[in-house]
Write a structure and sequence with these properties.
Elements lengths: L7 H9 L7 H10 L8 H36 L8 H40 L2 H17 L20 H6 L4 H25 L3 H20 L8 H11 L4 H15 L12 H21 L23 H25 L7 H36 L18 H21 L2 H13 L6 H25 L3 H18 L2 H13 L5 H15 L8 H30 L3
Helix pairs in contact: 3-4, 3-13, 3-14, 4-10, 4-12, 4-13, 5-7, 5-12, 7-10, 7-11, 8-11, 8-17, 9-11, 9-20, 11-18, 12-13, 13-19, 14-16, 15-16, 16-19, 16-20, 17-20, 18-20
Length: 566
């Protein structure tokens, strides 16, 4: 198109022809006379809210429904039993699904932005000691907010007071000591994780320094009659702490610190804190147990025979109050640091308030549905599973299968539950996408998911074998973690970060209650002293499987480059 020159005055005249002067008072009058804003119809609300809710609801449905259907189908087909209290269990599962949806949405909208903002601004404005103190408090408060931490209380009834008195005490009169030990361990782990991010320490070195003494402490405790039954509880506590509250909040603070210290160029820089948060509580619980057992028989307290009276102890008030006790201290900590230490106002207060309300409502619903739904379903499966290889403990009916076949069916069921639960964990799916992007497709998301799921499935089968055959848990842990340490030495730093953190994200709020309930049912049926250890084996399994997969990928990749012609 050819250019044409015109005078500037001609241009202004052409523009003025399309202008019209309007009095400002006329604009105000027209605004006043404009019809009121129309109200939203039901179809409009449906179009606005359905896409928003469906994505979040589908995520929790994928996590809960396959496991529930698996347990029901296994009982119906393999054990030839029907589900008891069907309506109550179904309503409980629905409450768990909706509660998890609300809770995760609240954490993402209300708590995580606070944690990341605090982590970003504190290193530059505060002394490192203040950051470490905040990390200690944050880790402890996040532990109290974990939904799965309440699953420990359900295991107390299946413990024998004669065979494991101090284990019964830790889940009874000394339950607060147990929770404080776990919270302190997580707090110290988060503080050490912050130091690692600030100074660029390698996770491989930290693992080689921390894990061997922890294993030695475990071996020593196994030789003490009073401490030996507590080993399973201590290692299971390490798995329970890394749940939907601790993981996102701690990683959010880590991302903020990494960005503030100039280490955000490596997306794996935030990895490793979850590993530390799963190791330190083990030492904390064993240390508290060592102190208590040193008191001797004088330290044993009477077990409460009756539940506390009052409206606050009845459902649903107990669950609602429990949700407030879990969320409010964590919330107050973040708000006080934001306002008093950082002197920054809260932005988007409506979104923040929405997140807080969703988190509290979600935890209350989750607590309501946990006992009525997932725990009941897992206990029913756990009680009926031994019928596959031994006479029914209630009716005395003959075993359904020969002993060897029945054991194989039981272990296959445990593997399937662990495998299916892991594939449904939302945190693991998010990690898979990140890893595939970081490795440029060398370590694909599907490979990571199946590697972790196989490890968890094998760990669940080993944990069930430990309960059925009364195997020494300390020996299984020593063998498993010795193999993991050997693979750690052979693996590169990025793979070590990924493998050790993958063990933490697998034990989520759905997997933990189911596996705990399954262990409780099995332990009760075979009269085991305790039903712990399944989660501990589910933690070491994915470490080994992911590092083996990563080493295989590295070998295959190097071979491909060596065969490529120059």
């Amino acid at each position: 198109m050819s250019e044409r020159e015109i005078r500037y005055g001609t241009y202004l005249g052409a523009i003025k022809r399309h202008k019209r002067r309007v009095n400002f008072s006329a604009i105000l009058e027209a605004e006043r006379l404009r019809p009121a804003r129309p109200r939203l119809r039901l179809v409009d609300l449906h179009r606005l809210l359905t896409p928003y809710i469906s994505v979040r609801l589908a995520e929790q449905l994928r996590a809960v429904v396959p496991l529930a259907l698996l347990l029901i189908a296994f009982q119906a087909l393999a054990l030839r039993t029907s589900l008891l209290d069907t309506e109550t269990v179904v309503l409980g599962i629905l409450a768990v699904i909706i509660g998890l949806m609300f809770f995760m949405e609240g954490v993402k909208r209300g708590l995580m932005p606070f944690a990341e903002n605090v982590g970003f601004h504190m290193p530059g404005r505060m002394h490192p000691s203040v950051l470490l103190g905040f990390s200690l408090l944050l880790g402890g408060a996040a532990t109290f907010a974990e939904p799965a931490i309440g699953a420990l209380q359900a295991a107390a009834d299946a413990i024998s007071s004669e065979r494991a008195p101090w284990l019964k005490q830790l889940l009874g009169p000394y339950a607060l000591w147990l929770v404080l030990a776990v919270a302190t361990g997580v707090g110290l782990a988060v503080s050490l994780g912050m130091l690692r991010l600030m100074f660029g320490w390698r996770l491989k070195v930290l693992v080689m320094v921390i894990v061997p003494p922890t294993l030695l402490f475990t071996v020593w405790a196994a030789q003490q009659p009073a401490l030996a039954p507590i080993i399973g509880l201590a290692w299971d506590c390490g798995a329970i702490t890394t749940g939907p509250v601790t993981v996102p909040l701690v990683l959010a603070v880590g991302v903020g610190v990494a960005a503030s210290t100039g280490r955000s160029d490596n997306p794996l820089s935030g990895f490793g804190i979850v590993t530390l948060a799963s190791l330190f509580p083990i030492v904390g619980v064993l240390s508290v147990a060592t102190y208590l057992t040193a008191q001797g028989a004088e330290g044993l307290l009477p077990m409460a025979s009756e539940a506390p009276d009052g409206w606050h102890a009845e459902s649903p008030f107990a669950e609602i109050l429990g949700a407030f006790r879990a969320i409010v201290p964590l919330l107050l900590l973040l708000v006080l640091v934001q306002l008093l230490l950082l002197r920054r106002r809260i932005r988007q207060r409506s979104v923040f308030l929405y997140g807080v309300i969703m988190a509290i409502a979600g935890m209350a619903l989750f607590n309501l549905g946990l006992t009525a739904g997932l725990v009941t379903l897992g206990e029913q499966a756990g009680v009926n599973v031994p019928w596959a290889f031994s006479p029914h403990w209630q009716t005395g009916a003959a075993a359904l299968y020969p002993f060897a076949l029945g054991i194989a069916v039981t272990l296959a069921f445990a593997f399937t539950v662990g495998y299916g639960a892991t594939l449904a964990e939302p945190a693991l799916n998010a990690m898979g996408v990140t890893v595939e992007n970081l490795t440029d497709g060398a370590f694909r998301k599907r490979q990571l998911l199946h590697a972790v799921a196989i490890g968890v499935g094998c760990g669940a089968a080993l944990g069930v074998s430990r309960i059925l055959f009364d195997l020494p848990l300390w020996l299984l842990l020593v063998v498993g973690y010795t193999l993991a340490l050997g693979l750690t030495i052979l693996s590169r730093e990025e793979l070590v970060n990924l493998a050790w953190d993958s063990a933490g994200v697998t034990t989520g709020p759905v997997t933990v209650p189911l596996l705990m309930a399954l262990g409780i049912g099995l332990g009760h049926a075979v009269e085991a002293a305790d039903s712990f250890g399944i989660l501990a084996m589910c933690s070491v399994g994915p470490i080994v499987s992911v590092m083996i997969t990563g080493l295989w990928i590295d070998i295959k990749t190097r071979g491909r480059f060596q065969r490529r012609p120059a």
